[in-house]
Amino acid sequence: MQRLIACLLALGVALGGLALAQDPPPTHGGSVTVAIVADPPGWDPSASTSQEIPRVVYHNVFEGLVRFDSAGEIVPALATDWSVSDDGLEWTFTLRSGVSFHDGSDFTVDDVIAKFERAMDPDSGHTNAAYYAAIESVESAMDGAAVVFRLSEPSRSLLYNLARPDSIIYPAGTHETQRTQPIGTGPFRFAQYVEGSEVRLERFEGYHQDGLPYLDEVVFRIISDTNARFAALQSGDIDLMAQLAPEQYVQADANPDLQASVGAATAEITVAMNNAREPFSDERVRQAITHAIDKDAIVQGAMFGLGTVIGTHMTPAEAYYVDLTDTYPYDPERARELLAEAGYPDGFTIDFELPEPYAIERRSGEVVAQYLRDVGIDVNLSVVEWGTWIERIFLGRDYDMTIIGHSEPRDINVYANPSYYYGYDNARIAELLAEAEAAGSAEEETAAFQEIARIIADDAVNVWLFSSPFLVAAQNDVHGFWTDQPTPNLNMVEVYRAP
After folding, report:
1. Is there a contact between 184 and 46 (Cβ–Cβ < 8 Å)?
2. What is the pTM of this model?
3. How far apart are CA 53 and CA 56, in angstroms?
4. Residue 231 contacts by C-beta under 8 Å, 6 or more apart in sequence?
5. How far is CA 156 from the centre of its chain?
6. Residues in contact with 85: Cβ distance below 8 Å, sequence separation at least 6, in sequence order
7. Per-residue pLDDT tens for 264-275?
8. Is there a single domain that holds both residue 279 and residue 149?
């Protein structure tokens, strides 16, 4: 183990240049090619929870009533402003006028009503129906110039949920075709998709915000191998790459033809355990596995120090973060004791499956496997193709242990769902989520979220290794890209080329 960590550290050099130079004034025209990791399972973020979808289409192609900006603040999009009644049960959004969809049809209040009536229907196939559970009705107001959400109870998270990719709006009656032919109101229209190769977006001349976007075209090129992606960046075949491996960031930062940045992100690199399957159904086993892993060494070795050790499902980039890294600290002797107490003095054998396109997860998983072997757990390590991971592991819950980065912000609510792929069942989580929704202040809401964080940490539901940074590199003439990632999104709206 120490030899492995030492070899990883030997690749590192001093880190510097974390901030980008002052950008030149924006210019219009041209094209930028961006590398992405995998084919999304369709293009409608309200039909799938895959974060590969919003990385391409959020704000680029689709918009909601409100959206997140680069700092994670909620700002107007298809609504220009909003107000809340004194009792918190009525939210009124003034709609932006003169907005067109990419197919030429006008954006109206009917599109908003159709969207959220579908979102409220548990049989519609819309993702994350819980986000809209408090909505009783959605109605037109001010002769169609506004929309009113009437709630059954106050919902502190409503505005946040309306900013999520799930809440994008498209023409009424078109949800069946959005997976393959997305039509939004964003600054780029969906032009072409070649499966396994690339996605091409073109400037939408009818965009409602004057002067944007700057680019005529954006090409998202699908390159699953991280080394191939970085080689394409170095050769100039692509212009921008996010999700860099740490050593790639170091190389890019030292390359005079490239610029590199380290930013905040909301991704928790998570070793997921199937709590509904033996031996992980025994809390002592899960505690032992957490004690067996030296998270600090993984961050220093596998991540070159570019990461923050975490102890629960939240990151320092989130407002309700609480540091629980000491809940089950690295202690291999205690891990062996807990395994013996659980009836496994000689360990057991598990299958640990790593997702094929994600280099950080695969690298971290290989180190985790060795730590588990050191305390007597026999690990069958394998790599699974991304589509298989989605279908069998995430949706089918057919696995022992896996690892993935959960990048959606404020998603601790998944621990209230026993059908989620963790197989974790604790009714108290749902009660606390309800308390957070009904909270009379931000402090009360934060307290409820932090109690959830403590409960899942105490229960050792998963092993949360670290929060990974948002590592980006680009050609020197590409400007205006996000250097933080408050939501999974390769936002190209204000990107431009200038020498």
Report:
1. no
2. 0.85
3. 6
4. none
5. 21
6. 91
7. 999 999 999 999
8. no
